TrEMBL record:
Xref: CDD domains: fungal_TF_MHR, GAL4
Chain positions covered by the region annotation Disordered: 1-27
UniProt GO molecular function: DNA binding; DNA-binding transcription factor activity, RNA polymerase II-specific; zinc ion binding
This protein's record includes keyword Metal-binding: yes
Organism: Aspergillus kawachii
Keywords assigned by UniProt, alphabetized: DNA-binding, Metal-binding, Nucleus, Transcription, Transcription regulation
Stated name of the protein: Uncharacterized protein
Amino acid sequence: MQGSSDASSASDDLSPSQPTLDSAPSANRNLKIAIPRLAPPSVKANQQRTPRACVACRARKTKCDGRKPVCRQCRRLDLVCNYAGSKRERQQLELESVRNKVVAYESLLSDIITDTQQTGASSIEDILNRHFQASPDVFAALLAARSISDPQLSPRPKPGISLNRMHITLATKPNSTSHPLTETPLVQVSNIQSWTDLVDNTTASHLLSLFFAWENPTWRLVDQEMFIRDLESGSKRFCSSLLVHTLLFFGCSSSYHLGRITDRREEKALGKKLYSALQHLWQSEKDDAGLPTAQSSIMIGLLCCTFGIDRLGTRYIMHGAQLSRQLGLHRESAPYFATDVEADVGSLSRCHKFVACGVFDVQALAAQVYRKTPVWDEPPAASFSQEEAAVSDEDEEWRPYPFQTPVFRPFHHTALCFRNKLVAIVNETASFALKFPDVKLTQDDWEYGRQTYQRLQEWRASLPSVLLPDENPAPNILTLHMYYQATVVALCQIFSLNADPTSIHPHYPDFDPESIKLQSLDILGSLVLLFQASHGLRSVPIVMLHYFLVGGMHAISQLRPMDFKWSFVLEACVVGLWHLSLGWGRMCTAFLRTIELILEATKPDPTLVPPKVTAVLRLLKSNLWTATDVTSLSTDYVVHHVPAAAGHSGPQFRAAGLEQLIRSMDDFAIS
């Protein structure tokens, strides 16, 4: 009984679908066993498929929640949200549209017949013209009749200069291969109305983002954190109306239409207003002894240099550098950055170091390129240590705004440490070059040149791997190396141009200016190609203006069959200058004109000149360069590596002032 009870219990515990030992089938017996079926899961409301995506989301291939009248994606991007109807709905809409047009046409013809019986007009064209001029309102019904291709909602106003405009443009190009756009601007402001009435917060955020992404990393002349903090709070310690308008102008010059790169009408209209405001604000704020005035003076000077009036521009730059010295930026501790708020000590110290190094950098570059006397004799005492820089650079990223990718590690603080050491050599060399050609090179001068070149080589060898272009092609790293190569070229030019061919000069195996110069120019050309491959040429800092001309001039002299590198370099430099000319001043077109004149003078094999170069220069000659541009130049810029005239017995290349070069070579057969 006990065994029977246990068996019964075991049988009761088994699932109905499981056969027991007692009911096991025999070898000759077929037994059908029921297979359980899982019940279909209930469909939750939030898992239901969107019945119909809107037109914009379908074109962009993004998920649409199907909300009406505007879905979530279109509301976020401020896009026009339309829903394409079914085939039956489209047919009904088309039929309704045709009926409305028929009614409108019948009404219009009836009115015309009635009116023309009284006027006696005979020509159909005459009838329509007279009737439309007399009463254009009769066309209202016809124009209001909807077409099947018309959107169901009225189009929104144009978004103007903004990140949103780029999103809208990209939404109309579903097959675009460009990188994804960022969702929000790099810099977001909400108090721009306290400083200017020319732009709203949306446009200001976009333009300031362009400036801080592309222009400011070269020199770090403006500390982003302190500037934005004071802009939002209304404080004038690190912000002013003059500085705000200056940065907006820089951002406006870097802005472009994502769909039509040459369409800068909105940017040019805003740029004119900003520049006009700059002129008035300078008169009212130039006597303010604050840091924003010094920063604005330097940046206005840079603008003047791009306008082809660097004689005025360098005065602004040196004036700003002098104001900065008066504020004590060159000292290790400046009263302007003092604070009693402990939480602000670190931010103010970083701001002091960035801005001081930036001021020293710009005035040294201006002294080198335009042959001016530097205002600062030596580097600022306040600078980042390498240990401090390494800590500050942790987790720092740079993105090519307005795009999300690619992402780079800029190592801004570390780069600033080493750049400051390079600028010290630039500043010193610029002062050394000023005594020529009034005096002849001496033995001591040659020894100075050799030692300076050794210092430059030691600087290059000391760079950490994170600052090498092969490992880190961030824009600020590439421009740092272009700066180095251009500095080597400038040093060698002093000796190449001022050496007396009739006298014997010292021979140093490790300092041959001509061969060293050519090697640096070769590397500079490769860096231009690397910049193009890594970032394109639509957005470039204005310092690239100088490197494009230097690289382009050298490329012309190196055009050879079966060596296509220099054709690519020439194309990159010319296209880069052309992109800059769309947003910046006359200097860009003057550089393009210089390259064109040198090409005409040297007459290289036409097959070696890229088609894009020919197209840009043809456009330049037709409507970009005029006699006014020639007469308006007021520049001390020196063009190096100019091919010597045929039959010249001296050096193969010479240097000439840009203004003099264009005036002497330009035949003035221009529009």
